[in-house]
């Protein structure tokens, strides 16, 4: 593992960089430090923003100096044993995401199947077989960048991105999968759609999940999709969540 670096980001930002590659272990360390800083009750810490391999910490320099923040981060890393990267057990929340695959909701499902010499049903079976770690949220509000997708269904992005992708569309781009919480342009191969809201600007809890959670997709029929959508619109639907035992 690369040595952890502490980089300046303007007069109110500190970047803690854990490595120069994308992998699950590095990302879990990012989230471990994010949680530790968020719960440290240290005056002057304004916000923590986890990414694939680094953590951006916004702070108030009138309350907390950069050097003091670096010392605190190092103390928390040492206390957690993060620098030595031990194998420790942890818990993760798994949010279950219903998806109606194919048809008008998944116009690229057949292409993904053909590209990988699979049937559409085999693509769906592989896509729903494991929980995916939410590495980070970005691009649009609540867009989850997920790790852990099987290379068996990896597919290149569209050569020409779509101008408009409906909210809830589930896609694949290279070795990543995710879904669009809001309508937006995009170049991912669309294989299905979820009826849930990944982002709701009018809710007191606008995001259905957080970076560091896991998502597991579940295939549903069109009738089930419509029924869940009615519950969502009535404010009566809460995605199922379970607890995942993992080893970091």
From TrEMBL:
Q: What is this protein called?
A: Allophanate hydrolase subunit 1
Keyword Metal-binding included in the entry's annotation: no
Q: InterPro entries recorded for this chain?
A: CT_C_D, Cyclophilin-like_dom_sf, PxpB
Instruction: Quote the Gene3D superfamilies the UniProt record gives.
Output: 3.30.1360.40, Cyclophilin-like (2.40.100.10)
Taxonomically, what lineage is the organism? Bacteria, Bacillati, Bacillota, Negativicutes, Acetonemataceae
Keywords (A to Z) from UniProt: ATP-binding, Hydrolase, Nucleotide-binding
NCBIfam families per record: 5-oxoprolinase subunit PxpB
GO MF terms, alphabetically ordered: ATP binding; hydrolase activity
Show where the Carboxyltransferase domain sits.
Answer: 4-209
Q: Which residues form a coiled coil?
A: none
The protein's matches in SMART domains, at most eight in alphabetical order, are given as: AHS1
PANTHER family recorded for this chain? Answer: 5-OXOPROLINASE SUBUNIT B
Native species of this protein? Acetonema longum DSM 6540
